[in-house]
Amino acid sequence: MTRRGWVLFAAMAVIWGIPYFLIRVAVKEFEPPVVVFGRTLFAAVALLILARRAGAIRAALARWPYVLAFAVMEMAVPWILLTTAEQHLASGLTALIIASVPIVGTIVAYLLGDRAVLNVVRLIGIGCGLGGVGLLVGRDLSSNHAPPVWSIVEVLIVCVCYASAPFLADRRLADVPSIGVIAVSLTIVAVVYAPIAAVSLPSHAPRSTAVLAVLGLAVVCTGLAFIVFFRLIDEIGPARAGLITFANPVVAIALGAVFLDEIVTVATVCGFVLVIAGCWLATRSHAAEPVDCEPAAATR
Fold first, then answer.
1. How many domains does the chain have?
2. What pTM does this model have?
3. In the chain, at which end, N or C, are there fewer CB atoms within 10 A of the end residue's CB?
4. Residue 176 in domain
C-alpha cells in the first residue's frame, strides 16, 4: 500500500470510528429524529454541490425507486435505530456490535444465492463472530445497569440493514456514480425527517457540545467521510478499503473510555477479538484475499 493509501486508511479508521461517540453525546440533548435530520441536512448540502459538479444527480434521479430503497435501508431506518439505541447503550459496545456487519454480509450473500460464499473457514468465522457478539451482549445484559433488550435488538437490525443495502446498490445502482446516489439519498432522508425533527426540538437551549456533535456527524462522519472513502477506494480498491471495519471499533472504544467514562472489561476485549477474528475469517476467500461482502460504501 502506498503512503497516500495508508494516510487515507488511517483517516477513515478515525472518521468512521467517532460517530458512535458523537451520537452518544448528541442524544443527551437532542431526540433521535433531530440528530438524524441534522446529520443528513448538512451532509446533503455539501454532497449535492459536489454531485452536481460531477453531473451525477441526474443519473441518480433516473433510478429514483432504487435510490429511495437504498436511502431507507442504508440511512433512514438504521440511523434512527442506532441513535435511539445509543440513548441506553455505551458507544463502544455499539461500535463492536456494528463491527459484525461483514459477518452478516456473508450470510446475506448466501441467502441471495451465492452458495459458494460459505465454506468451512467462513462458517468458523461466522460462529466466532456471533460468539463475540453474544459475549458482549450477555455481559451487558447481566450487569447491574443492564440496558433495555430492545436497544440491543435495534443495533442488530442496523447490522442487517448495513449488510443488505450495499447488495441493492451493487445490483441496481452499480452504473450510477456513488456520490450521486449518496447525495440524493441524504436529501431524501433529510426531507423525510424534517417535520419529525421540527416537533422534537428541545424546549431548552441545548449545550454547545451536543450541537457540535451533530455538526461533526454531518460534516466529518458523513460529508467528509464519503469524499475520503471514495479516494481510498480509488487508491487501494474496495476490498482493502473495507478492512477499515476492523479498525473503527478501536477508535470508538478508546473515545468512549477516555471521554465518556465507559468501562473496558475483559469481556469487552475478548468480545472484540472474537468479533474481529470472525469478520476476518468470514470474509476470506480460498486465495486468502478479502472478499468484498459490501459492494458499496456503507454509511456509519
1. 1
2. 0.88
3. N
4. yes
